[in-house]
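User: Can you predict the 3D structure of DNA mismatch repair protein MutS? Sequence below.
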Amino acid sequence: MTGMVTVRLVRGAPPAQAASPVRPAPHVGVRAPGLDDTQWRRLSRGQFRVDARLDLHGYIVQEAFEEFHRFMQRSRVMGWRCVEIVTGLGSGARGGSIRRELPHWLHRADIAPMVLGVVHSHQGNRGALRLLLRKKR
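Assistant: Sure. Here are the predicted structure tokens for DNA mismatch repair protein MutS:
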């Protein structure tokens, strides 16, 4: 028989290692390893030109996530370097649900490797994040 592959499972074997380590997404306002002084200073001072902006006002959380995910995939394809995500402040005591969820979305395995730095777009505005994205290779 041609094309037949035999797979043998070994109990207790370690999981296969990825070819390159997955980089965790940076936390908001915290300089990530690999981000040089000049880029960090430019990002935190708002000196990067924003290539695209996503406004999530008025969405429920699931719809907001779907829009965010499509936007991030498109930003990869388009080669955008700096994008802004607007969530708004929210009306609750702890802020809006989308605003609370966005940091979790940034740590997803398919999104985290794209993000180099995350800051609030302005110190007085906690309802928007500016993301510096990794260059496409």
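The longest strand covers residues 125-133. The two ends are 41 Å apart (CA to CA).
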